[in-house]
Amino acid sequence: VSTVKELTSELEAENAENIRLMNKLASLEAEREQLLKNIGSSLNSEEIDGLLRNRDYEYLRAGLVPVKGRGIVITMEDAPAIGELDAEEYIIHDNDINAILDELKANGAEAVSINDERVITTTKPVCAGPTIIVNDNRYPPPYVVKAIGNPDVLYEAVDTMVQVAFMRLMDIRINIEKKDEITVDRFHSFRSFEDMFKGLEVVEQ
After folding, report:
1. Residues β-bridged to residue 174
2. For residue 74, which of 170, 134, 164, 135 has the smallest C-alpha distance?
3. Cβ atoms within 10 A of the Cβ of 158, count?
4. DSSP 179-196
5. What whole-number distance in Å separates Cα of residue 161 and Cα of residue 144?
6. What is the Cα–Cα distance from 122 to 144, expressed in whole angstroms?
7. Tens of pLDDT along 20-41?
8. 132-135 own/partner pairs: CB under 8 Å, 24+ apart
9. Contact 157/103 with Cβ under 8 angstroms?
10. What is the model's pLDDT at position 175?
11. pTM (2 d.p.)
12. Strand runs (DSSP E) across 104-149, as ranges?
């Protein structure tokens, strides 16, 4: 039977290997990007330049590149205390977050993230007890939504939502800030070793 020390040693070795592979992946991705740029520059072809621009646009739409620009940051936290209604009324649910995401997209948000998880076409936050799962990763509140787009339009759209007004009535805290510059990271299809265990609970027996 493996001892705790042996298991810890194995875990540390797997973690080190994971870090090495993640660094190698990042290096290969950077090398690939540089090769594509070099091809366009060396051939000086308008057709290739056009293809690269189209690729960059599709990467943007797919959430595969980080985006920086003006926008808003929405911070949401559960109500600090439970009142006379059902406890479920005082916490943030996945339908609340999805309604806000839909509103942002409908009002021209170019890139959106939740707790730094890039929102792509397949992203649909779901509740998991008092937490939410975004892109297979679990997060407790507060939930921080970043959206790049016209700050005035996005702010007005979210601030006047009926669902947001109801959440505030339940004392759920929702703070919306306009920002001159925010960064929304790209979607990461591979997760680090630490992220794989994020949100797991330790149970003592």
Report:
1. 76
2. 164
3. 22
4. EEEEEEPPP-SS--HHHH
5. 17
6. 19
7. 776 776 777 777 777 766 765 6
8. 132/92, 132/94, 132/97, 135/187
9. yes
10. 97
11. 0.68
12. 111-114, 117-118, 126-128, 131-134, 137-139, 143-148
